[in-house]
């Protein structure tokens, strides 16, 4: 289709729109009658890849959102889900975008998005942990891998 190439870049995102119940409420009810469909969030930068990953749900933060994306790997962390808050001293500074298990490495990778201006808190020696509400904390990672720039 003419014009589509202007929408497709490395940061373009595709996801399936379907009925979902989550922390933010219920969405996609219209698809009960029409059926599921694929939604596109156009990108603005990066070379067009040969393939795109199809997400099960819409991204929590658009590719052009101000902030930083961080990948944390853990061998033994409690379960975190997309939409869970990332807190700094009790204040929400971001959220968990994705969680994936790598069976070969036996690790769980969490992609977090830290909103600007709070992204300045992420330095090379930042530490993340899962606060279970009790005195014990499940340590996620001592070193975060910065996957994308600011």
Question: What labels describe this entry?
Answer:
150 residues, mainly beta, Elongation Factor Tu (Ef-tu), domain 3, 5-stranded antiparallel beta sheet, 3-stranded mixed beta sheet, 1 helix, 12 strands, 41% strand, globular, disordered C terminus, transmembrane helix, cell membrane, cell inner membrane
Tell me what you see in this structure.
The protein folds into two domains: 4-55, no CATH class; 67-146, Aminomethyltransferase beta-barrel domains (Elongation Factor Tu (Ef-tu), domain 3, Beta Barrel), CATH 2.40.30.110. Residues 135-150 have low confidence and may be disordered. It has one helix at 31-34; strands at residues 13-17, 20-22, 25-27, 37-41, 54-55, 67-74, 85-88, 91-102, 107-115, 128-131, 137-141, 145-146. Strand 8 and strand 9 form a beta hairpin. The strands form four sheets. A five-stranded antiparallel beta sheet has the order 7-8-9-6-12, with no helix packed on it. With 150 residues, the chain is mostly beta strands.
């Amino acid at each position: 289709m003419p014009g589509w190439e202007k929408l497709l870049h490395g940061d373009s995102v595709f996801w399936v729109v379907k009925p979902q119940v989550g922390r933010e409420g219920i969405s996609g009810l219209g698809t009960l009658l029409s059926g599921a469909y694929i939604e596109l969030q156009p990108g603005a930068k990066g070379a067009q890849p040969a393939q795109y990953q199809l997400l099960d749900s819409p991204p929590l933060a658009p590719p052009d959102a101000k902030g930083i994306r961080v990948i944390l790997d853990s061998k033994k962390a409690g379960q975190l889900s997309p939409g869970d808050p990332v807190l700094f001293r009790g204040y929400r500074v971001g959220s968990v975008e994705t969680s994936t298990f790598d069976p070969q490495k036996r690790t769980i990778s969490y992609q977090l998005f830290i909103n600007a201006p709070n992204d300045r808190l992420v330095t090379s020696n930042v530490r993340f942990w899962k606060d279970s509400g009790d005195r014990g904390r499940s340590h996620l990672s001592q070193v975060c891998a910065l996957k994308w720039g600011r």
